[in-house]
Design goal:
This protein is an alpha/beta fold. It has a single domain, classed as Rossmann fold (3-Layer(aba) Sandwich), CATH 3.40.50. Helix content is 40%, strand content 25%. The chain is built from eleven helices and eight strands. Strands 1, 2, 3, 4, 5, 6, 7 and 8 form an eight-stranded mixed β-sheet that branches. β7 and β8 form a beta hairpin. It is globular. The two termini are 29 Å apart. The relative contact order is 0.17.
């Protein structure tokens, strides 16, 4: 997994402004749920290229920005944020003392770990009593057509295996009930989940293809392994799936995130 995210880091850094703009409603919802104060130490899990760290910098005493991928951590470090410590860290094995942080935030990370229950237990361990957790995941695939143009096409044509139950992935924590159950099992209280709409806008098909293949290293690798005719067929089928979202300016494709807040 680490190698896959290292391979994707350049694409995430290149599209950082677009990702930040699209996910701005999610970022704002996370900040509101976290309610971090100026004296707080905040742990940012699976922080990628540093969007949440940038949003928190200057608002809190210290941000510990982490990611499993050294390449992602390097990209976040290049932002030169003040009051931010950058560390390579696995969410399932946090190298921090018990009760050492005031709040934990994670934008789109918990659904990607093999053992989210373990990651939540570790999160609970490092939070002080009364500390806050806020994290986001994606709602079901049917509610996120921006992310599902290629997957069904590749599965239908036998180029990709369908996701298995319990397997980590973009939609592994797509149900509020599952999120609430995991959080309560890890020892969190006052758990609530809120839906937050987003919208991806692209000037045309080539913009969409550039972005999604730049962000998803596994997709890029799968497409690269196809011959030219097969790749053109997959591209055409994926493009047709987006036609209902075409506008005079390109594409406007909806999505839906889930934002969870809880107390330790």
């Amino acid at each position: 997994m680490r190698q896959r995210w290292d391979a994707a880091a350049a694409g995430w850094e290149a599209e950082r402004d677009l990702i930040a703009a699209v996910n701005a409603p999610v970022t704002e919802a996370l900040l509101a749920a976290l309610a971090a104060g100026p004296d707080d130490v905040v742990l940012d899990l699976a922080g990628g290229t540093g969007d949440m760290a940038a949003a928190l910098a200057g608002r809190v005493a210290t941000v510990i920005a982490t990611d499993l991928s050294p390449a992602m951590v390097d990209a976040a470090r290049r932002r030169g944020l003040s009051g931010v410590e950058h560390r390579v860290m696995d969410m399932q094995e946090l190298g921090l003392p018990d009760g050492s942080v005031d709040a934990v935030v994670c934008r789109f990370g918990f659904m990607l770990v093999p053992a989210p229950a373990r990651a939540l237990s570790e999160t609970r361990r490092v939070l002080r009593a009364g500390g806050r957790l806020a994290f986001s995941t994606w709602a079901a695939a049917r509610q996120n057509p921006w992310a599902t143009a290629y997957g069904p096409v590749l599965i239908e044509r036998g180029y990709q295996e369908p996701p298995q139950p319990g397997e980590p992935g973009q939609f592994a924590l797509a149900e509020p009930g599952t999120i609430e159950e995991l959080a309560h099992a890890a020892g969190f209280d006052d758990v609530s989940v809120t839906a937050v709409p987003v919208e991806y806008r692209f000037g045309g098909w080539e913009d969409y293809r550039r972005v999604v293949t730049g962000l998803a290293a596994a997709l890029r690798q799968t497409l690269a392994q196809l011959d030219e005719a097969a790749r053109a067929d997959v591209d055409d089928a994926a493009r047709r799936r987006l036609e209902r979202f075409r506008t005079p300016d390109g594409y406007a494709i909806p999505g839906l995130a889930l934002v969870m807040r809880a107390s330790a």
